[in-house]
Amino acid sequence: MKYQTAAARIMLAIVFLGLVFLRLSTIMSSPDGYVQYQVTLGQFGLPAIFAPILILVQIVAGLGLLVGFKTQLFARILAVLALFLAFVLGRVIPEVFFLYVGIAGGMLLLSVHPQTACSVDNMKS
Fold first, then answer.
1. pLDDT in tens, the chain (125 residues)
2. pTM more than 0.85
3. Which distant-in-sequence residues (6+ apart) come within 8 Å of 68 by Cβ?
4. Structural domain boundaries, residue 59
5. How many domains does the chain have?
């Protein structure tokens, strides 16, 4: 039972880390990959400045969540990001709306119960 919340924390982190890893490999596979990513974001109504911001937030918050460092903070940040992505991407791809709303729910639950096994936060206390 004590490892279930740790497993949930890690699986939720993997969602964002996996997505950013796939995005970065797509960007690196083509000389104009980063520009293509910016164009893709533009198709969803987002300006180019969102490209580095989305990548940075997903890497930093995803890694923090993965190791359980500042879990409450990073879970809240990723909940906001998930809701943002739900509304932005969900306008074009309705299925994505429901997926990201569910992820945001998991993040909010994790932010209320941030103390999980196998985490940096738990080692400090």
1. 678 989 999 999 999 999 999 999 999 999 999 999 999 999 999 999 999 999 999 999 999 999 999 999 999 999 999 999 999 999 999 999 999 999 999 999 999 988 888 899 888 65
2. yes
3. 6, 9, 116, 118, 119, 120, 121, 122
4. 4-124
5. 1
